[in-house]
Amino acid sequence: MRFIFILTGLLLLIFVWLYLDFSLGRQKHFSITRKQQENPILYGDFDIFPRGKSLFSDYFSELQSAKKHIHILFYIVRDDEFSQEFFDILKAKAKEGVEVRLLADRIGSFGLKKQTIIELQDAGVQFAYSNRIKLPYLFYSSQVRNHRKISIIDGKIGYLGGFNIGKEYIDQDPELSPWRDYHLKITGESIPSLQQEFFNDWKEYSEEKLTDESVYYEKQPKGRIPHQYVPTEANQLEDRYIALLRKAEDSIMIGTPYFVPSNKVLDELVQAAKRGIQITIVVPFISDHMLVQEASYRYLRTMLREGAQVYQYKKGFYHAKSIVIDEKICDIGTANFDKRSLFLNKEINCYFYDPAFVRRFKEILEKDILDSKQVSLEDLNKKNLKRTFKEAIAGAFSYFL
Which of 144, 302, 362, 382 is the most exposed place for a label (fewest CB within 10 A)? Predict the structure, then answer.
């Protein structure tokens, strides 16, 4: 009995500590997050890569052609055979005299071996971890992740999107292949702005003291497609999503691996449906994380009751992050349609305001719908005790999924 009493007391203390740690850490984070600046609408040219093999063939080729500097930020950098090819390119370029900086999220890239980092640094690659776990809010800081994926090569070519560095992203994971995602290759006048976003994170987490950043911001020629970068953290993304959804006049299309919106965002979608907006949601048929699929069901049921169309992508794993509003605006970036991206992660999205580009991307999304199975409310309401139990657990932890 005494043991049970002590154990119960310890569990209670742990729960109280976790609650206070997270609540106070979030309060401090929200208070010190810099006020979001509205980035200008600029013009550039874009390629869209929905498959990892074609993306990384192009990406590695551009890395190998770098002459001055390479700046890279990924959420996940694995330590597998595919990653080794990536590391070998970075080490070779650093030895040639190219400035190479690699920033990786501390939790997302947890499997990166210390020896691998030492080898990169010995070759001349500057490496840093972003969003390290730190006192006094250990639990909260462990949940705040840098989910951005940005690369800038020679200040002229940029990459941004949903792919990370690891074998699953080139279809070498048998359970999650083929991997479906969207990644952008960017040229044009907005590259210096993307470069600035990288340095905002680099200066926060690296020990390097930059004396003259101006050498990295060469003016680039104007492209054809109007677009706008939207970097967010803490609670900034929720308002941006709501403002975006309110622009809809005919349709909203959402592609996401995790559909776990906040109450405010869900209410905005419901109101859009009530005023006659056609809402289409594409999610995966298979899941890459425990409970995230079950966490989405309560929200999908709500949208199905309001007349939304829901599809589960069946031709591999669906990891896309996109929103299309009518044929006027589309959003492609790193943020998922979930509470973690809304309130915890650092993210960066790109809004496009060119109707021709929006139609081009919409065709890709419509192709994904053809490779999907439509889900009905009856499907999600079928009696399933195992699923019901998992949904209950997922609901309690949905903020972190």
Answer: 382
Provide the sign of the torsion angle of the four alpha carbons 154, 356, 38, 239, taken in this order: negative
149 is catalytic: yes
| Same domain assignment for residues 214 and 266 | no
pLDDT recorded at residue 38? 81
Q: Which residues of the chain have pLDDT under 50?
A: none
211 and 343 part of one domain: no
Residue 115: the pLDDT is 97
Is 154 catalytic? The answer is yes
362 labelled catalytic: no
Question: What's 281's domain CATH number?
Answer: 3.30.870.10
Q: Which is catalytic among the residues 71, 319, 339, 346?
A: 319
Catalytic residue among 45, 154, 288, 371: 154
Confirm whether 147 is a catalytic residue: yes
Distant-in-sequence, close-in-space partners of 218: CB < 8 Å, separation ≥ 6 = 155, 156, 192
- The reply to whether 326 belongs to the active site is yes
Would you state the pLDDT for residue 385? 74
Distances in whole angstroms, Cα of residue 258 to Cα of each of 42, 56, 318, 381 = 30, 24, 10, 19
Name 187's bridge partners. Answer: 45
From residue 259, alpha-carbon distances to 37, 178, 298, 311 in Å are 27, 21, 10, 12
CA angle 280, 284, 286 (to 5 degrees): 155
How high is the pLDDT of residue 7? 77
Selecting among 29, 91, 149, 185, the annotated active-site residue is 149
Q: What is the CB neighbour count within 10 angstroms for residue 46?
A: 22
pTM summary value: 0.94
**Residue in this structure with the two tokens 């501390």, named with its chain if needed:** 106
Where is the domain boundary, 223, 255, 286? 223
Note down the domain range covering 83: 42-223
